[in-house]
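Continuing from the previous page...

OK, I double-checked the sequence for Outer membrane protein assembly factor BamD against my notes and this is the correct one:
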Amino acid sequence: MQAWKTLLLVVMSAIVVACASTDESEEGLPSGSRTEQAFYEAAQRQLRSSQWDLAIKNLRALEDNFPFGSYAEQAQLELIYAYYRNYENDAAIAAADRFIRLHPQHRNVDYAYYMKGLASFTEGSGLFERFLPTDMTRRDPGSARESFAYFAQLMARFPDSRYAPDAQKRMIHLRNLLARYEIHVANYYFKRGAYLAATNRGRYVVENFQQTPAVPDALAVMVQGYHLMEKPELEANSLQVLQANYPDHPAFRSDGSFNYNYYKGASGRSIVHRLTLGLFEKSDPRGFDSREQYNVEYRREEAPLPPELM
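Thanks. Re-ran it with the corrected sequence; updated structure tokens here:
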């Protein structure tokens, strides 16, 4: 009987050791090694090989087991990056906030501010957006506003940061997105017959998003809106500004007169467009949208915004 107990104990011990070895193998750790350096080196290998889930697991384990170790602060920074690359944007922002709170004077705290903006910049970019192009200017602007605010914090606190030039480019891009969103809303209001609301959106762009490519369309929105509301003086003032600054706006006819039917666009869609839900054929736009003319980012011969810094 004692022999059976001994044998059972040996078997159970072997199972426990095997399970532990399996766990360590899954973590990418050397067998029997759970030191701070082992966790960190395993995480580095996994980051280099894009094994984001495993890297996150080891970086978190490192911090949990060695919160005051020599790699703890660096692990916290790299955890932000791993979450971001794993499309866990909320977790990346939370990790960045935590690092800023714990280490406000750290020499690399500017990186945490930058990653907050970057994670918000790509918020909502899931599998669908990766395989099918979507018009980001038509999406809820909440993430864009949040990202802009985070990048603005970085620029205000660390104007000489190595991340400042890229943050500034992204802020310009985000500002353009926010301005274009207002034009889309104005076009929607025109379609609904809410001319005052549409005109107010145009005026908002002119007053708050100067020097963005949406300004020409914003002025055209104001001309159209004041015309429909029968306010000739305001219409004339807006038209004068549009003619003086953007005489080649597509709402102008060849003789220089403003086409008050331009905003209606083309109402018809081809059979191909209807059958494919617009995936293979671009429909004629309804409303004011001259992005391809005034924004190099949307010109077909131009490259889009530079790739994200990884």
